[in-house]
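LOG
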Amino acid sequence: MAKSSAGELRSQAYLALDLHYVTLEELKPLYDLADKVARQLARFIAYLESRHQAPRVREDSGVYEV
């Protein structure tokens, strides 16, 4: 989901450029940051998928007292 959101942000940024809401100089840092975040997320997802054998925390009971 987050990786798709980063892609959508890049798309919206280009739309803002096309509609002359921002200049190319204003767009570049935003685009670069969104691209960096998307790459970081891709690496994190790959890391999590590579650990599919990792033990998971599981509770035996779902009863809680307050």
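LOG (cont.) second protein
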Amino acid sequence: MMNTVWLMSGTSLRLPLYTLGKSNHDPETILSINRPILPQIESRLDQLRRSERKVAELVLAQPDKIIHMRIVDLAAAAQVSEPTVVRFCRAIGCDGFGNFKLALAQSTLPASSGPFHLEELDTAREYTYKVFDATLETLAKVRDSLDLDAIEVAVDALANARRVEFYGFGASSPVAIDAQHKFFRLQIASAAHSDPHIQAMSAMSLTPDDVVVAISQSGRSTALLEAMDHVREAGALSIGLAPGGTPVIERSTIAIPIDVQELPGASYTPLPSRIAHLTVIDILAVGVSKTKGEEVDQHLTRLNRGLQSLRTNS
């Protein structure tokens, strides 16, 4: 069943901007993102329709450029329709364009230096470089797999919201707090909640003009899912930042999957998913600031000027 998102535009006009739905694609045929996708495309060229083959040949010729394209850009470059691009993705075993971009990004990234692993004799230089390398690799993969169409719709929803609330538990709680700090500076009424009871009461108090950003590194927190149910009952929009295919993503009005492979190890290891979530929050904040334009720019200038008096010159 398809679920159409309606976003506020102007005062009372509502426009259908984004449609989300569950795929009927057989899970057994979905391409594993751990398998190289380019050889898969080459091996299936003869099985593709003529229009799908045009997309395949462009991907094989320019994979580094394709990972930065939206579906509309790829369709235009290949001189085919957007539905043809979607059919191509499914024909090669991907469950949609987002899954295709993730697989392509992982195929085109330089070879990793190996999984994160601390050695007993690691020097400060060695474990410092290991942490940075693991984080940078994670951010590159997330960047290249982000659904940019979903980003645009989320920015539109946030920029037009009466109020924005951020929900997160555990390691996602600091991300929610950081997001609230960014968005209230953009002159948007906002709050961050990490207590399940407060989240539930807050969700019940929302209106259809409000937006909730649900942040989860597992995508399976039962308390967060219950709060999202209350958000839906209140008629508000929910933006989900969580791993793809998880309940949080499936219950979101606007889904932004963030797939991060957590680093193994019994000892302390960095948490790259939190850094990825913080980065996506930055992307959304930049988009909203850009959408609001000069008025927000002037407000931020006044804020920065006013903060100078709170800082010592010594």
